[in-house]
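Structure first, sequence second, as always.
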């Protein structure tokens, strides 16, 4: 059973295509997030600009991978709102529950309210 916490936000751009669903959304403007520091959560709905959307911010959540991700890898957000494996200097927002290929939909455990910052690569697990 997947359980997560979610919130609503006003979409700052059209997010109504399948390609945006499960990408990271920015807290400040309701657009696709450019990094882990500004990410509010993961888009669950498909709102148009100005409409209300729903983003999950904690729990077991689906995500869209921007590169190959291995099981148990720490996850961060790329400049396009996709999730990739975290490295030094990244905000770690979650961990992959399963492996997923680039462009695929994965499953992970997230906490956007308390992201960890990887000062060195060994902190990124």
């Amino acid at each position: 059973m997947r359980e997560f916490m979610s919130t609503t936000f006003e979409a700052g751009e059209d997010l109504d295509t399948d390609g945006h669903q499960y990408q990271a959304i920015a807290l400040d403007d309701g657009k696709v997030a450019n990094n882990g520091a500004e990410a509010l959560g993961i888009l669950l709905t498909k709102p148009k600009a100005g409409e209300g959307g729903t983003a999950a911010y904690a729990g077991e959540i689906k995500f869209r991978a921007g590169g190959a991700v291995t099981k148990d890898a720490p996850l961060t957000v790329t400049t396009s709102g996709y999730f990739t494996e975290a490295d030094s200097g990244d905000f770690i927002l979650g961990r992959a529950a399963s492996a997923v290929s680039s462009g695929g939909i994965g499953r992970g455990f997230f906490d956007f309210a308390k992201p960890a910052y990887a000062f060195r690569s060994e902190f990124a697990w």
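Margin note: The chain has two domains: 4-58, 62-123.
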